[in-house]
Specification:
It contains 10 helices and 10 strands. It has a domain of 149 residues: Rossmann fold (3-Layer(aba) Sandwich).
Length: 263
């Protein structure tokens, strides 16, 4: 599979603190790739660098063979590198349908047409219904977004992100705050969203990572610690050390990072 997103020596320092240091990342087109690591490993900073929300101190970022290291964030999004955020962000007083339609309008350059009549906006309805179906939200279309259960609200965020027609979809902790039932639904939606797209996700739920992801990059203290499939990285002594710490030194050889749950 060709590489669609790549970094070389990517680094970011904040007043002498090295949040991300010399990260070489290669994401294959059509894959689901996870970025994992203990708290403070630099995962979200890495996301912010990739999507150009912050500037790199050093290194390069290439997307579809194009150097985007200094490309503005909005231009990067238009190229097809689109992200979600940890914090839920929907228009609570609009319906689910209106939220998604507004995102479709934004992609097509008419986001300020929200005040036009429903008849005038009907041109966006077909694509809106397609996205609602993809996110399993058709039955929620007329509900106010602010009244959705948490898991459905995250599904709505996914639908509005997909409306921007990403080539690479970056998901920042998509399972955060979810219960077991919502996690299963969200995992199914991500698997569906990955058809014809590339997904790069930061995720703490390692059972989800084990079940969903083709390849995993492990960060620790801002550096790449290991990379490979889950079976490989979960047994890497350096990864076990990063997650379990020195207090488990005598047990490390008997542990993986986490056993996936298929329940």
């Amino acid at each position: 599979m060709p590489t669609i997103l790549e970094t070389q020596g990517l680094s970011r320092s904040f007043h002498g603190f090295h949040a991300v240091s010399n990260v070489n990342l290669s994401v294959q087109e059509g894959s689901i790739h996870a970025l994992i690591g203990p708290n403070g490993a630099g995962k979200t900073t890495c996301f912010n660098l990739l999507t150009r929300f912050i500037d790199a101190t050093a290194g390069r970022i290439q997307f579809q063979g194009q150097d985007i290291t200094r490309t503005p964030a909005d231009a990067v999004a238009r190229l097809g590198l689109v992200r979600s955020f940890q914090i839920s962000a929907v228009f609570g007083q609009l319906s689910v349908f209106e939220n998604v339609r507004l995102a479709v309008q934004r992609r097509r350059g008419h986001s300020m047409d929200w005040w036009r009549s429903d008849k005038a906006l009907a041109v966006y309805d077909e694509r809106t219904h397609e996205l609602l179906a993809e996110a399993s939200l058709s039955e929620w279309a007329r509900h106010l977004a602010g009244e959705l259960p948490y898991g459905r609200k995250r599904a709505l965020e996914l639908a509005t992100t997909l409306a921007l027609e990403p080539r690479v979809l970056l998901l920042d902790e998509p399972m955060a705050g979810m219960g077991a039932e919502d996690i299963a639904q969200a995992a199914a939606l991500i698997r569906q969203a990955a058809r014809g797209r590339t997904v790069l996700m930061v995720e703490h739920n390692l059972s989800v990572v084990a079940d969903l992801c083709d390849r995993i990059t492990v960060l620790a203290r801002g550096e790449v610690l290991a990379e490979g499939d889950y079976a490989t990285v979960s047994k890497d002594p350096r990864v076990v050390e990063a997650y379990l710490g020195h207090g488990h030194a005598g047990q490390r050889k008997h542990h993986t990072v986490a056993e996936p749950s298929h329940g």
